[in-house]
Amino acid sequence: MSPTVDVEVRRNRHGSVLAYADRDRAARLLADHRAVLQSLYDLVDRRHGSDGETVARLAVREDSRIVDELDLRDRFRRDLEADRAIALVEDLRYHAGERELVTDGGTDLCGDESRFFWTGEECPDCGGDLEQQDEHNVMCLTCEAVFQHLLTESEHVLHTPERDESVRKPRAVTDGGPESEKNWMQSLLGAASQFEEEHDDLEVILEGAIGFHTFYVADGDDPTRGVKTALYSGLNDLLEEVSVDADTVRLNHGAVTPETVRQETVDQIAEFTYVPESLAESIGESVEERVRQNLNGEDSR
Q1: pLDDT at 298
Q2: Is 228 a member of any domain?
Q3: Where is this region: Disordered (predicted)?
Q4: 213 or 22, which is more confident?
Q5: pLDDT of amino acid 109
Q6: Tens digits of per-residue pLDDT, 112-131?
């Protein structure tokens, strides 16, 4: 009988992640247990179930360390198109087996620099080892605290939502890095200048070359101060599982265009949230316009 590797959903006050019931066993039986877990993230809907519940079971052929069978619990399965689901399972099997990944001579990291950045780093809560679960979620293997991984133009940010605390580390700089850093700082200073010159009320929204931001007076007398910021914060929480990047759009739609990015965004909103169609379409329009500006080399105003 083939040995099995169980995967659990683990929840705490910060959110939910996937984790092996026995991580050492997974590391022994699977050639790249981290990449296998990454593929499972796209197959499993983590909104269901309770802490510690088994969501997936992998039967492994131990002599070749290849997954013979994948059993996903019914309620944890994502509603994916057949071709997308098959591609993810094939990716899982590839990483599970002993395969040699050939690169162009760079480092032996994943092509996406953010995917495993925090793995092996020290947990800011207890000092234990961190393991990055996917692009956005990091878990401590000792205290099981869950953190968010955020990526800016210059930093990797390990964020604790409940305490609003962050650990920051610089991104790797390639040729042209200093100029990029200079442009980033100029954009930030420009936004601050715009705030000082044009706005003197309790709350303001700025949208420009460095993103979308809201500001409000923290210690004013008006009890409604910051309500608009809270509105956008709530919308951000609602859309937490929506994650659109060029690779996903290319895989699902064949090409990256303003229209296909909009469609992928609307599709994910329909899959992961319960917002009205009119709101999803409004978000889709904003996304399409943002991508169009990116392709045309324009800054949003």
Answers
A1: 62
A2: no
A3: 158-181
A4: 22
A5: 37
A6: 455 567 877 888 888 888 88
pLDDT at 168: 81
Q: 251, 245 in Cβ contact below 8 A? A: no
Structural domain boundaries, residue 249 = 239-300
The verdict on residue 81 lying in a domain is no
Among residues 72, 106, 132, which one ends one of the domains? 72
d(CA 232, CA 238) in angstroms, rounded, equals 10
Inter-CA distances, 142 with 123, 145, 156, 203, Å: 9, 8, 22, 41
Q: For residue 204, is it within any domain?
A: no
Query: How many domains is the chain built from?
Result: 3
pLDDT in tens, 165-206: 678 887 654 444 444 444 555 666 666 655 555 555 567 777
Domain closes at, from 53, 72, 91: 72
Q: Is residue 143 part of a domain?
A: yes
* Average pLDDT value for the chain: 76
CB contact at 8 A, 92 and 40: yes
CA-CA distance, 218 to 215, in Å (whole number)? 9
Which is higher by pLDDT, 249 or 161? Answer: 249
Express each pLDDT in 266-283 by its tens digit. Answer: 998 888 888 888 999 999
93: nearest Cα among 152, 149, 31? 31
pTM attached to this predicted model: 0.40
